[in-house]
Amino acid sequence: MQIKEITFIIVTFHSEKVIFDCLDLLPNESQKIIIENSQSTDLKNILESRYANLTCHLMSQNLGYGKANNIGINFSETDLVFVLNPDARFTPKNLNKFLEILSHEEFAIAAPVDKWEFNQELTSKNITEVNYVKGFAMLLNKKFLRNNYFDENFFLYMEEIDLCKRVKDDLGRILKVNVPIEHLGGASHGDKKNLEMEKSRNWHWMWSKFYYKKKHEGYLLSLLSTLPSFFSSFIKYFLYFLTKNETKQNIYKMRFLGLLNSYLLKKSFHRPNLD
C-alpha cells in the first residue's frame, strides 16, 4: 500500500490552533482534502499556499463531523480515505509502518491505536480484529462501504460507532493496528471557545447516545436505558444552580436538554456560538 493510494480527509472548525502541526507531519505527495465548517477564507488561502496537493473546501454553515466527512470522501478520487482529526499527530515513521502492516490485508475500516494503548511488547500480532475503532483516525475502504458512509443525522459523537456497527452487520472487517498515533483531544480552540464547545459537546453527547440506541434497539428500550441519565442530569443541574457553580450548571443543563430533544425526536440542532 502506497501513500498515493490514500486521500486524507480532515474536518476543521476554526482549528487554526492545531491543524498546522497535523499537516506538517503528512507526506507532501499525499492528497489532502480539508473541509472547513465555516467561511474562513484566510485559513483556506494559508493552507492551500503552504501545503502541496491540498484543497480546502469552505462550508456555508457548520455541518458537523459526519456530514462534512462525507463531503470530503465524495470529493476524493482514491479508493482509500484516511479520516483524520486536526488534533491528531501521525509521524511519518508510524504512518509508513501502519500502511506496511496493512498492505496485504482485506478490510473495510482500519485504525492505529492511541499512543496510550500502544503495546511495545506486541510483535507477533500487530493486527487485531475488533467491533469498532475510535473516530479520530480511521482508514476507510470505499469499495467495501459502497457510498454508505457516516449517518448525517449525527452532528457530533457516535457517528463512527454507528458506521462500525453497520460494517460489522455487513460482515466487514474492522482492524486495529498496533501502531501509535497521538490525539490531543479537545484542544482545538481558545479558552472562551473551548467553553462553548464543551457545552455543545455535552448536548450532542446525550442527543447522539439516545439516537444511536433508538436506531439500533428501538425507542422504548432506548428510553428505559437512558432515563437514569436524564433524571441525574436534571438533579445535578438543580444542585449546581443552588450552589452557583455556573460551569457545572451549564454542563448538566446541556446534557438534560440534549437528551430531552432526542426523546422528542428533534434533529441535532444545537450549534456552538464561537463569535
Number of H/I helices = 9
CATH topology of the largest domain: Spore Coat Polysaccharide Biosynthesis Protein SpsA, Chain A
Instruction: Determine the CATH superfamily of the largest domain.
Output: Spore Coat Polysaccharide Biosynthesis Protein SpsA, Chain A
**How many structural domains?**
2
Shape field = globular
What is the average per-residue confidence, as pLDDT, rounded to a whole number? 92
The gist of it:
With 275 residues, this protein is of the alpha/beta class.
What does this 3D model show about the protein?
This protein is α/β, with parallel strands linked by helices. The protein has 2 domains: 3-183, Spore Coat Polysaccharide Biosynthesis Protein SpsA, Chain A (Alpha-Beta Complex); 191-263. The protein has 9 helices and 9 strands. It has helices at residues 16-24, 41-50, 65-75, 92-102, 142-145, 159-169, 191-217, 219-242, 246-263, and strands at 6-12, 31-36, 54-58, 80-84, 88-89, 109-114, 127-129, 137-141, 174-183. Strands 1, 2, 3, 4, 5, 6, 7, 8 and 9 form a 9-stranded mixed β-sheet that branches. Helix 2 (41-50) links the parallel strand 2 (31-36) and strand 3 (54-58). It is globular and about 55 Å long. The termini are far apart. The mean pLDDT is 92.
